[in-house]
Amino acid sequence: MNEPPAFTREQSRRVDEIAINEYGFSGLVLMENAGRGACETLLEFDASLRKTLLTDMTGSETSRLAPELDAQVVILCGKGNNAGDGFVLARHLSIRGIATKVLLLAPPHELRGDALTNYAILKHSSLKHAGPAVIDLSQGDDFAKALDQHTGSAKWLVDALLGTGATGAPRAPYDKAIRWMNAQEAKRLALDLPTGLDCDSGIPADPTVRADLTCTFATSKVGFQKRQATEFLGEVCVVSIGVPQGLIEAIST
Ligand SMILES: NC(=O)C1=CN([C@@H]2O[C@H](COP(=O)(O)OP(=O)(O)OC[C@H]3O[C@@H](n4cnc5c(N)ncnc54)[C@H](O)[C@@H]3O)[C@@H](O)[C@H]2O)[C@H](O)CC1
Ligand SMILES: [K+]
């Protein structure tokens, strides 16, 4: 039985490109599969995450987070498609009644493409239909205080800051956010890769998110096999984004 492939950053980006340009996938389908797959993986990994359903005046259940109730999952989002995966994850957690909050670390006006589409969907849900709270922290000055204020007793913090689009060590404010995340009691889930970890060399920048669980999309990454990467990855789960195996094999050769 062949070992499942581990891709380089470049190969991972080729999956997206070929799936969209040659197979006709919409990027939104790939992103939905990524975010929903990460949601299902997280709920399997941590059975203690439970519905925080509240009843409204009519007695029907809503998933709106009561102000005094802290979110069980807090998702820190950057501005690329890794953030887009975080927006999709937030929506699916909320559908399952898991109290969720999204913290934006980049100004919403910098969002583009599929990430912007999923941000708009999330904003619409949170306004109209008891979706997760979406809080813009990108303008604040006392960053750590704002993060503390919005995180309370969260069980999980999610790293949706940077994925395969990262170049070099995480720049401000992501570096401060990573140090803050690594100092929290909560467990940490990294989407696609822990921000700060070079997915080709496996070399962790200072700082790098210290994940308990990494949900990586389509295939594992070559850098994940390096010894210095393991303490930042936690358990690694490969999440299918729905592209045919033939495409993965074609890129592997
Ligand atoms: N591989 C797949 O088939 C799929 C991948 N998905 C997700 O998309 C990301 C890659 O998204 P991309 O927009 O290319 O990049 P990022 O989200 O990683 O962010 C890039 C963004 O951040 C800025 N930036 C780059 N380097 C740094 C840095 N060192 N410090 C601060 N900011 C930085 C840069 O300007 C960009 O704007 C992939 O990882 C998956 O999560 C799809 O959603 C599903 C299919
Ligand atoms: K990430």
From TrEMBL:
Cofactor note: Binds 1 potassium ion per subunit.
Entry EC no(s): 5.1.99.6
Positions contributing to (6S)-NADPHX binding: G163, T164, G165, A166, T167, G168, A169, Y174, D192
Transmembrane segments: none
Nucleotidyltransferase among keywords: no
Keyword Repeat part of the UniProt annotation: no
PROSITE patterns for the chain: YJEF_N
Source taxon at top rank: Bacteria
UniProt: K(+) binding residues: N82, D159, T195
GO-annotated biological processes: deadenylation-independent decapping of nuclear-transcribed mRNA; P-body assembly
Keywords of the record: Isomerase, Metal-binding, NAD, NADP, Nucleotide-binding, Potassium
UniProt catalytic activity: (6R)-NADHX = (6S)-NADHX; (6R)-NADPHX = (6S)-NADPHX
Domain YjeF N-terminal: 12-249
Enzyme superclass (EC): isomerase
InterPro entries: YjeF_N_dom (IPR004443), YjeF_N_dom_sf (IPR036652)
Cited NCBIfam families: yjeF_nterm (TIGR00197)
Family: Belongs to the NnrE/AIBP family.
Cited HAMAP family: NADHX_epimerase
PANTHER family, per database record: ENHANCER OF MRNA-DECAPPING PROTEIN 3
Protein name (Swiss-Prot/TrEMBL): NAD(P)H-hydrate epimerase
